[in-house]
Write a structure and sequence with these properties.
By secondary structure, this protein is of the alpha+beta class.
C-alpha cells in the first residue's frame, strides 16, 4: 500500500559534491535487455527501486544502448535538519529497473540527481523529472523521467550566439569576428555565490557548450556586461539563444573632456593624451574617434583640429609684452610661423641692461597648442576690474589673425598663456627630439663624479649641463638603434645621457617580480630550460640556476630538480636593474579595490588554471589593492624579447603572461587592450610574472 507520493525538489545534474570520490567501473552495464517491472507492486522491504523512463511516453529507456556512462546520485539527509549535508552515493545501474539495497527511515528525506556526464545530446532533465514513492514496508520507488531532445534545434546545455551590427542591422561577418572576437562578460548571482563566465564569439551563430541556461533559471541576478542590446531565449532542454546587437557608433562630437562643449580645450586634451600625459582625464574618448576605427591616434587629432577650425577662428601669431616693476622690465615673448617652420622668440630690453634676444624653433604641435588657447576667456579675465592684479607690472596681449585683424588687451593681470611660454622657453634648449617618447621609463641613479647632459644622443653634441652625483633621472625617450643613450630631463633642461657609463646605473628597485615557470608534459619527461635576459639582470632563482635548469617533469606539473634531488611546483626567477621599455599604449586603468576581480577575470580569460591564477593573485594583490588606481598592461614581444626562454624538448603550447603596472593617484583614460585566449595542447609550459613601474 502506498503511504504518500512525493515529488522532491530537483537538483541540477551538474551540481555534485567535489569531496565525493567517484570510482568508474570498467563495465557500466551488465544487462543487455530492459527488465520488466510492475510499478504498482512495491519493491522488497528496505530497498530502493530506480526506474528510468521517457518523460512523454512513460516507456523504460534501455540504458546500456542509449548511454556509454550513466550514474544515479541519491542524496539522503535527516528530515528535521535541513542544514545537514546529505550523504551521497554513486550508483551505476546494470539493469532498468535497478534495485539498491538501502533502508530509508521515516525521519530521512531523499532526493535524486544524475552524475555529471551521464546525459548525452539525446536526452535532458526537465522540471519535475523525479517521482519518489515511499511504501509501508520501508521500500522506496524512484522514477526518473528523461525528456527526449528530438524536436529541439539546439543540444542540451548549449548556447547559440548571434551578433548583429547596431549600425547596419545586419549580422556581423564571420571574418570580422575572427579578427576581433566579441567578448562579453557576465555577472551572475545565485544562492551558491557569484560567478562570471566569459562569452566569446569568434563566428556568427556559433554554438558553444555552456550551462548559462541553467544559471539563468536559478539566478537571483543575471547581468551581461555588454554595451549593446541583448535578447535571451531559454528552451526546455536547458539550451539558450543569445542575440547580441552591438551599440551604434555615436558620431564623434569632439567633447572629450565632458564639459558638454567642443572647443580648443578638447583638442589640447587629446593632444596631451596622445603624448602620454598621466594628468589628462579623457572622460569620453569615443568623442574623438573621427575615423571610427575604435582607437585614438594622430589622425583623429588632425581631423579634430580641422573640425575645430571650421567652427572657430584661431590666431596665427601671439605676442605678450611684460613691462614695469622695480627694475623697469621690458620683456617680449612672441610665437609665430614662417612657412612650414615655427618659432618662439624672446627679447629682454629691460632698461640699463644689455639687451638679450633668443629665437628657438618649436614643433608644429607646440605652435598649434599656443594658438588654440581660449583667448576670449583670457581677455575677459584681463579686463575684469574685480580681479586682483600685479599693480606695478603691465601685460600687453596681442593676437594677429590670417585676415590681418588683431585683438589686444592691456592689464595688470597676467594672461595665463605667459606661464606656458616661459616653460616652453626654459625647456626649449636645442636638443635632438627622440624617435620615441615614453611616459613610464626606467629610473637611473647618477653615481661617482656625475654625468654630462648632451643636446643629442652622442658625445659629439653640445654639453647642456652637468648632472651631479645622487641625482635620479627618468628615461623619457630613446632613439631607434641607439639603446645606451636615454632622453631625460634635469633641472628644467631636456637632453641626452649615456646610460652605459660607469657613473650611472639603473635604479636597483626596478625589478621583475617572481616570474615562475610551470611545466606540464604528457608523460614523464626530462626537460632543460635556459633563460636569456637582455634588459635586466638575474638576481634570484630557485632551484638554483646553473647555465639552465635540468628537471624531470611529470604530467601533474611536479618537478624533480636533477642537481640536488629536490621537488618543486615551478621554476622561480627574479631580476633587477630592469631597463625594459614597457608598452603602455593600451591597457586598463583599474581602481585598487577592483584589482582582485579584474585579475580573476583577465587571468582566467588568458588561460591560467585556478591554481596558477590564485598563486599570481596571492603574490601581486597585496602590492596593488591599496593603490588608488593601477594602470595595467600585459606585455607581449617587449617582454618575451627581453627574457628569452629556450626549452628542450620544445613545448607544443607556451603561455607567457607578464603584467606591468603603474600605481596612480588619479585615474587616466587608456585604450583598452585586446587580450588573447590560450589553448593547452600536448606538452604545455606556462609562465607568469610582473613588474611595478614608478610613475
Amino acid at each position: 500500500m502506498k503511504l504518500r507520493n512525493i515529488t522532491a525538489a530537483f537538483l541540477a545534474a551538474t551540481f555534485l559534491f567535489p569531496s565525493v570520490s567517484v570510482l568508474y567501473p570498467s563495465t557500466v552495464f551488465a544487462a543487455e535487455t530492459v527488465s520488466e517491472v510492475n510499478t504498482d507492486i512495491p519493491p522488497a522491504a528496505d530497498t530502493v527501486r530506480f526506474t528510468v523512463v521517457d518523460f512523454d511516453t512513460g516507456e523504460k529507456i534501455a540504458l546500456d544502448k542509449e548511454f556509454s556512462y550513466f550514474a544515479i546520485v541519491p542524496y539522503i539527509w535527516s528530515s528535521d535538519d535541513t542544514q545537514q549535508s546529505p550523504s551521497t552515493n554513486y550508483l551505476y545501474p546494470d539493469s532498468n529497473p535497478y534495485i539498491w539495497e538501502q533502508t530509508i527511515s521515516e525521519n530521512e528525506t531523499m532526493s535524486v540527481s544524475l552524475a555529471d556526464g551521464s546525459l548525452n545530446d539525446k536526452f535532458f532533465l526537465p522540471k519535475n523529472y523525479e517521482e519518489i514513492t515511499r511504501y509501508e514496508n520501508g521500500s522506496v520507488d524512484v522514477v526518473i523521467k528523461l525528456k527526449s531532445n528530438a524536436g529541439f534545434e539546439l543540444p542540451p546545455g548549449s548556447v547559440r550566439i548571434t551578433v548583429t551590427d547596431g549600425d547596419t542591422g545586419e549580422l556581423v561577418p564571420d571574418e570580422v569576428l575572427a579578427e576581433e572576437p566579441l567578448i562579453v562578460g557576465t555577472n551572475i548571482v545565485t544562492k551558491g555565490g557569484v560567478t562570471g563566465p566569459i562569452i566569446r564569439a569568434d563566428k556568427n551563430r556559433t554554438v558553444i557548450k555552456s550551462n548559462l541556461a541553467s544559471l539563468y533559471k536559478s539566478a537571483d541576478k543575471f547581468e551581461l556586461l555588454f554595451d549593446g542590446k541583448s535578447e535571451i531565449t531559454i528552451y526546455d532542454n536547458n539550451s539558450m539563444d543569445l542575440s547580441l546587437t552591438t551599440a551604434p557608433k555615436a558620431e564623434p562630437n569632439g567633447d572629450v573632456n565632458g564639459d558638454e562643449t567642443f572647443g580648443i580645450s578638447d583638442a589640447v586634451t587629446l593632444q596631451q593624451w596622445l603624448l602620454g600625459s598621466a594628468k589628462v582625464n579623457m572622460k569620453n574618448w569615443r568623442a574623438a574617434d573621427y575615423n571610427k576605427d575604435n582607437q585614438l591616434d594622430i589622425f583623429d587629432l588632425v581631423l579634430m583640429k580641422k573640425e575645430l577650425l571650421r567652427s572657430i577662428d584661431l590666431p596665427v601669431e601671439v605676442s605678450i609684452q611684460e613691462g614695469g616693476g622695480v627694475v623697469g622690465a621690458n620683456i617680449i615673448y612672441k610665437v609665430y610661423s614662417e612657412g612650414e617652420k615655427y618659432f618662439l622668440s624672446y627679447q629682454d630690453l629691460t632698461y640699463d641692461q644689455k639687451p638679450k634676444s633668443i629665437v628657438k624653433q618649436i614643433s608644429e604641435q607646440e605652435y598649434r597648442e599656443i594658438m588654440a588657447q581660449d583667448y576670449d576667456s583670457m581677455i575677459r579675465f584681463m579686463e575684469d576690474p574685480d580681479r586682483p592684479g600685479w599693480s606695478e607690472i603691465v601685460f600687453v596681449l596681442e593676437l594677429s589673425y590670417s585676415d590681418g585683424s588683431q585683438k589686444k588687451a592691456v592689464s595688470d593681470r597676467m594672461p595665463s598663456v605667459l606661464t606656458e611660454l616661459r616653460d616652453m622657453l626654459a625647456k626649449s634648449s636645442d636638443y635632438v627630439e627622440p624617435d620615441n617618447r615614453i611616459e613610464y621609463g626606467a629610473t637611473y641613479n647618477v653615481l661617482g663624479d656625475g654625468v654630462k647632459l648632451y643636446s643629442g644622443p652622442d658625445e659629439s653634441y653640445e654639453v647642456i649641463d652637468n648632472v651631479p652625483s645622487w641625482t635620479k633621472l627618468k628615461e623619457l625617450g630613446y632613439q631607434n638603434g641607439n639603446d645606451p643613450w636615454i632622453f631625460t630631463e634635469y633641472s628644467g633642461q631636456y637632453g641626452w645621457v649615456n646610460s652605459s657609463g660607469a657613473d650611472i646605473s639603473v635604479y636597483l628597485g626596478a625589478q621583475w617580480g617572481k616570474p615562475v615557470i610551470y611545466i606540464y608534459p604528457e608523460n614523464e619527461t626530462d626537460v632543460h630550460v635556459e633563460l636569456e635576459l637582455t634588459t635586466s639582470d638575474l638576481y634570484t632563482t630557485y632551484p638554483r640556476y646553473n647555465n639552465g635548469w635540468d628537471v624531470t617533469a611529470y604530467p601533474d606539473g611536479s618537478l624533480l630538480n636533477k642537481a640536488d634531488g629536490t621537488h618543486h611546483k615551478y621554476l622561480f626567477w627574479e631580476s633587477v636593474n630592469a631597463r625594459t621599455r614597457f608598452d603602455f599604449s593600451k591597457g586598463f586603468c583599474v581602481a585598487g579595490s577592483d584589482t582582485e576581480c579584474f585579475l580573476k577575470e583577465k587571468l582566467t580569460y588568458m588561460g591560467l588554471t585556478e591554481e596558477e591564477m590564485n598563486e599570481f593573485i596571492v603574490y601581486w594583490l597585496p602590492k596593488m589593492e591599496h593603490n588608488k588606481y593601477n594602470l595595467i598592461a600585459f606585455q607581449g614581444d617587449v617582454y618575451t624579447n627581453s627574457a628569452k626562454l629556450s626549452i628542450t624538448p620544445t613545448p607544443d603550447s607556451l603561455l607567457r603572461i607578464f603584467m606591468a603596472y603603474v600605481p596612480l593617484e588619479e585615474a587616466v583614460d587608456i585604450q583598452p587592450q585586446q587580450l588573447e585566449t590560450f589553448e593547452r595542447n600536448g606538452f604545455t609550459v606556462v609562465e607568469w610574472g610582473g613588474s611595478e613601474i614608478n610613475s
